[in-house]
Amino acid sequence: MKVCVGIIGLGKIGHRFGISPQGDPLSHSEGYAQIPNVTVVLGVDPDPEACRNFQQRFSEAQVYSSLKDVPHGLHLDVVSVCSPTHLHAQGVIAALAWRSRVILCEKPLAINAAEAEMMLAACSAQGCILITNYSRRWTPMLQALKNLTNQDDGLGTPIGACLRYNGGLLHNGTHWIDMLLALFGSVACTYRLEKLSVAQDDAGESIALSWNSGLTAYLIAVRGTGYSIGEGELWGTGGMLRYSAGGQQVTWQTVQPSQWSGFQELSQAKMICEAGLKGHILGAVTEAVQLAQMGGQPTCSGSDGVLALQVVEMARNNKFLQDLRTQIPQPP
Fold this sequence. Notes:
Oligomer: single chain
Strand content: 15-25%
Distance between the termini: 77 Å
Largest sheet: 9 strands, mixed
Radius of gyration: 22 Å
């Protein structure tokens, strides 16, 4: 079955990131280009330069500067929505008009949970599969973490986590929220750890997440850097997992007896994953094509995208830790 694909948003993740020096696709367009029997037939972006770059690579595709210019009656099998977040809903509704079987939408799914729920309901009503591209869901990094968090002789009972990121909580922080949800399930409570002095549309914010199991994870925003940060630790009764470089490397330390009688310590770190992000785009677009051909359930669904946004809103609407402290009676 030949699969026809359209891409809304031809910027970095849609097209311009291209291919890594190792040959791995870093954009949706280059991911689709590596899949047999897939043809990219449509690109939409308001930037003339982005459209030119895309058409040079995909000469047979039709390219438009606006969704309203796309001809009526178009039928596509898969559509990637890679436009800015506030335009995701508009892109999804357009893709539904093209009778798409599958829509792969970049993260975060929408600007808020209510809009994301509307998008998911619209897709469900039309029988269209909505995928949220939290791309680490398709990586060796997440599989390595799952292998140890699911083993009785691995992490054991999860106790805590401390993850550090930069960028906005919606745009970047929800990557790590989704990872925690994929590993440990739905949270019981989330709250902010700080109150920002200046309001921003999508600021880096530090939050805490708690599970009924007793696990607490801290997602710490690192601000003021000129470089990307994505690193953290997850610990349990059996040892500690660490990931770095956005998940490119994952190490594992087990609990072992200490030289000091009656104590235990962590072993030397063992590298268990050295190419943790390999295939992060190819995995997502390949699944989108397979779902269009055969149906099934996505690895990271529209519901997962909604849940990540609900966690953010729960944290933002909950009391700040500072506010909670003011309720504690102070000594005279």
